[in-house]
Design goal:
Shape of chain C: elongated
Number of strands of chain A: 11
Distance between the termini of chain C: 20 Å
Shape of chain A: globular
Number of helices of chain A: 11
Largest interface: A-B, 37 and 34 residues
Largest sheet of chain A: 7 strands, mixed
Radius of gyration of chain C: 22 Å
Structural class of chain A: alpha/beta
Largest sheet of chain C: none
Number of strands of chain C: 0
Distance between the termini of chain A: 17 Å
Oligomer: heterotrimer
Helix content of chain C: over 70%
Order of helices and strands of chain A: EEEHEEHEHHHHHEHEHEEHHE
Chains: A alpha/beta (288), B alpha/beta (263), C mainly alpha (283)
Order of helices and strands of chain C: HHHHHHHHHH
Helix content of chain A: 25-40%
Chain lengths: 288, 263, 283
């Protein structure tokens, strides 16, 4: 059962000189219920713009020019602003890469989680909301949640801030969590904890996850399905298992080969790299 | 030990945090008495997470920061006591490649000038000779000669790193400190820059002190690895041995946390 | 450079500002050729003549004359020279001292920073006009002294702006790279850091020009700046107060000149800020 179906999405950026940057160029994929889909690609691949398009956070000079984003029967692109605002935060939530700047430094942690609840669950009273916030903080593994409610972001570490971000996102029990490179700025051990947390939350709540990253190793850890993007196009799409065991598209293969694998890649050998001269888009797309 | 070029002994860097008039200042031990050696021609990596002290150590070796205690001996001489022409000589031998390709190049200078700076400041070469050397270096790191007159913002991250590498090579150094040189780059560009660094090491017989938090990369290129944690060295071993047989708890934790692709 | 011009052109008010400034400079340079009369020439027969298009106006006095029969139009044109000079010299003075102080404070930090910034704080705690008045009163009323006063009064603003800008750049890796390669302190300050810290300084200078002109007009209005018969616009306002009902043009046109000049520089400064700032953000 698919939670979200993205069909032929096109998001373009228009410069004043009349140039068009086809950041997302006819992209189609599905996000099954309760599963994790990873969009993997390098800078300029369009992966982040795809995520932002689903949330409809694309601003001038960019515009979604075509396609459909179907969330449980309704096409998100056809919703009014007011309707989309209801979807954002409640049905679809998003967390970002920079935990330092994505939390508002002037408000306490508890307030920010509470804000999400206030917007989308108007039926709850103050005490109920407080309990839910504490519950959310506990769920994401923040110790002493009741005390941490009144803390300001600057007092927390990067990993803790990211957990708070996840708490804000999960407070309204969204159907889809979009995570745009959430662990890239974190230390490796913290990254491992955050990834474990996300998996745990998915198991407990059944939330689907759309995880954007450039790190294939992270994809290996958490993805059920993988979408490989290059310059605005999907070049390969497969289940995680199939992609890693049997990568078909030359770009995917080149990406995989450029990562040194301890124990496998001969030490100090020259790594295969993505070839600048090759037009990877000329190869047939491998959609499985 | 004729092939030992650096001897670091009980190196310390402490910072004092002023807690107010009536409290004793808090002391942060960024680097807490570490000792190690660097051998000629090797790639020695210092690995650890943020705050472990690896960057601070690099800064002290480069004389950007002054140690609070301990010694850094370069070819037998204490570098904290260098001055005048000895200092210039040291500078010529020990160079750095920075992490952030965006802030490590002067945005207002052209590429040619950026790479030429070390030569302009530390050698007697004429303008023409300098330009020739810069063009040679550019070619060596895979840059086009046309780029000489361009500005950094016209280039991608990977290309800017190449500019930084060319600058580091300008004075024909013996040792290059690589401070997370590929952390800010895309995976495929990382591979290109790593390949370049390996090629250059062989060609010029360089010694690298490679700082990183990325164990996969470190494992791939290092001869020896030092693992740091909260200012201390917790493990120091040849790369192979570290991965096969990590002894310290923290090393094990670090290794298990790396997302790996095992097939 | 071409990019810069293109970006700048997009902001219509900024372009307007630019043209006003150009007009001003043009007027100042070509005053002897444009102005129909000399600014100090009196024609007592025709004193207090209204502008040309009004009843009683004469075509040889385009904007009318003042109480000494001097042509208002010519005086305004020559006044442009004075205003530009005032702006340039005051800003020049504030900038040189302010830049040095801000740069030294930011670069060396610690006690140097504390010491310099305390001086700046003291200067800032005295209202600008008051300080200017005090300086001029000590030195004696004249345009030159007014310029010096305004120059002194402007120093703290530049010191702060420069300090903030340099502090940001100082920690960047390219500065460390130059330092490692043996760059001297002077070189680091002026060749490495300054070109990158320049934007806010340029913007501040442009707007500083406007406030300098305004302050000079204010001082002259109070009788502390330009002395008669210098055709400084503020002085012209002051001299004309008594004629406000009988010869309003004497006040209106110099006032308009001041207004347009200040507007022009401010718009230009705004435009520069919009163009220079986002462009310099990489990534």
């Amino acid at each position: 059962m698919n939670l979200i179906e993205v069909k032929n999405l096109k998001t373009y950026f228009f410069s004043d000189e009349g140039e068009v940057n086809k950041a997302v160029n006819n992209v189609s994929f599905e996000i099954p219920q309760g599963k994790t889909v990873c969009i993997v690609g390098e800078s300029g691949s369009g992966k982040s713009i795809t995520a932002m398009s689903i949330m409809q956070l694309i601003d001038h000079p960019g515009r979604i020019v075509g396609g459909e984003i179907i969330l449980e029967e309704s096409n998100l692109l056809k919703l009014s602003d007011a309707q989309m605002r209801k979807v954002r935060g409640r049905d679809v939530a998003m967390i970002f890469q920079e935990p330092m700047t994505s939390l508002n430094p002037s408000y306490t942690v508890g307030y920010q989680i509470d804000e999400a609840l206030r917007l989308h669950h108007k039926e709850l009273n103050k005490q109920q909301r407080f309990d839910k916030v504490v519950e959310a903080l506990d769920l994401v593994g923040i110790p002493d949640p009741k005390e941490k409610y009144g803390e300001y972001p600057f007092k927390l570490s990067g990993g803790q801030r990211q957990r708070v971000m996840i708490a804000i996102a999960m407070a309204c029990e969204p159907k889809l969590l979009i995570a745009d490179e959430p662990t890239t700025a974190l230390d490796v051990t913290i990254q491992a904890q955050v990834l474990d947390l996300m998996k745990k939350l998915q198991d407990e709540t059944g939330t689907s996850i759309l995880f954007i990253t450039h790190d294939l190793a992270v994809v290996y850890q958490i993805a059920d399905e993988v979408v490989v993007m290059y310059r605005g196009h999907i070049v390969e799409k497969a289940s995680a298992k199939e992609l890693f065991e049997n990568p078909k598209h030359p770009y995917t293969k080149a990406l995989l080969n450029s990562i040194p694998k301890p124990g496998v890649t001969p030490r100090k050998s020259r790594l295969d790299t993505v070839d600048d001269t090759v037009d990877y888009l000329s190869f047939p797309k491998e959609i499985r | 030990m004729s092939d030992t070029i650096f001897q670091i002994r009980q190196l310390k860097k402490h910072y004092e945090i002023n807690l107010g008039l009536f409290k004793k200042p808090k002391i942060i031990k960024a680097v807490d008495s570490i000792s190690f050696e660097v051998k000629k021609g090797e790639i020695l990596s210092i690995v650890g997470e943020s705050g472990c002290g690896k960057s601070t150590t690099a800064k002290m070796i480069l004389k950007i920061e002054e140690p609070t205690g301990g010694e850094i001996l370069f070819e037998g001489a204490d570098i904290t006591k260098l001055s005048g022409s000895d200092l210039v000589a040291y500078r010529k031998k020990v160079q750095i490649i920075f992490q952030d390709p965006y802030s490590s190049l002067n945005p207002r200078w052209k590429v040619g000038r950026i790479i030429a700076e070390p030569l302009a400041l530390n050698s007697d070469m004429s303008k023409g000779e300098i330009k020739e050397r810069v063009l040679y270096l550019m070619e060596r790191v895979g840059m086009l000669p046309e780029w000489y007159d361009r500005y950094p913002h016209q280039f991608s991250g990977g290309q800017r790193q190449r500019i930084g590498i060319a600058r580091a090579l300008a004075l024909n150094p013996e040792i290059i400190i690589c401070d997370e040189p590929v952390s800010a780059l895309d995976v495929s560009i990382q591979a290109q820059v790593l390949n370049l660094l390996l090629d250059l090491q062989e060609e010029f017989n360089l010694t690298y002190i490679f700082i990183s938090h990325d164990l996969s990369v470190v494992n791939h290129i290092s001869d020896r690895i030092i693992v740091m944690y909260y200012g201390k060295i917790v493990e120091m071993k040849p790369a192979e041995a570290l991965f096969q047989n990590p002894e310290h708890d923290y090393t094990q934790k670090l290794l298990s946390a790396i997302p790996k692709i095992d097939l | 450079m071409r990019d810069f011009i293109k970006q700048y052109k997009k902001n219509k008010s900024a372009v307007l500002g630019f043209f006003i400034v150009v007009l001003l400079i043009f007027m100042a340079i070509f005053a002897p050729w444009i102005a129909p009369h000399l600014p100090a020439d009196q024609d007592l027969v025709h004193r207090l003549t209204p502008p040309m298009w009004e009843e009683g106006g004469l075509h040889q006095f385009f904007l009318g004359t003042d109480d000494f029969g001097r042509d208002l139009f010519s005086r305004i044109i020559y006044g442009a020279r004075i205003s530009l000079m005032v702006g340039a010299i005051s800003v020049g003075m504030s900038l040189s001292f302010g830049l040095t102080m801000g740069m030294l404070a930011a670069y060396f930090g610690g006690k140097v920073d504390l010491f310099i910034m305390r001086i700046v704080d003291i200067m800032l705690s005295i209202p600008a006009i008051l300080l200017a008045i005090v300086v001029v009163s000590i030195l004696g009323p004249s345009l030159t002294n007014a310029m010096i006063a305004i120059g002194i009064v402007g120093i703290p603003t530049y010191a702060r702006v420069v300090r903030a800008s340099v502090l940001t750049e100082r920690e960047k890796e390219y500065v460390i790279a130059s330092r490692i390669n043996g760059s001297s302190n002077m070189r680091l300050m002026f060749k490495v850091i300054l070109p990158n810290a320049a934007t806010p300084i340029i913007v501040q200078s442009t707007m500083g020009f406007a406030s300098a002109v305004l302050e000079a007009a204010g001082l002259s209005f109070l009788g502390l700046g330009a002395q008669p018969p210098t055709p400084e616009w503020g002085a012209m306002l002051s001299d004309s107060l008594q004629f406000i009902t009988t010869a309003p043009w004497m006040i209106f046109y110099p006032g308009l000149a001041i207004f347009l000049t200040v507007l022009g520089f401010n718009l230009m400064g705004d435009g520069l800020m919009d163009v220079l700032d986002p462009k310099l953000k990489d990534k």
